[in-house]
Amino acid sequence: MASASSSSARHLFDDSKKRLCARVGVNVNNLGSVARQVVRGSKTNEIMHQTLKNFTQVDVVSDYSNQNLQKMTLILQHVGYQYDVMEDSVNHLDYLKEQVTAMER
């Protein structure tokens, strides 16, 4: 009886050992997967940081572009005013030429 009990215990031990090895093997495979995810995660963090940095730069450039566009609109408006003044001056010159011609007669 002692031998049957010993054989049964050994069989149970071997079975437990095989199951433990199988689970450790699965966990090692999972560990590799987790390690890859950690590496990807760290790269994702770097990518997110770079993306945020690029977005911030684009936002600053966009603000400068908007300010420059507003300045150009203001300059265009002033050039329009100057054109109107010069056109009025040319019209006055024509009037003055007519008056000088009338005075010479």
From TrEMBL:
Pfam families: BORCS7. Its main location: membrane. Keywords: Lysosome, Membrane. InterPro entries: BORCS7 (IPR032143). One of its GO terms (cellular component) is BORC complex. It is found in: Lysosome membrane. PANTHER family: BLOC-1-RELATED COMPLEX SUBUNIT 7, BLOC-1-RELATED COMPLEX SUBUNIT 7 BORSC7. Belongs to the BORCS7 family. This is BLOC-1-related complex subunit 7. The gene is Dvir\GJ21679.
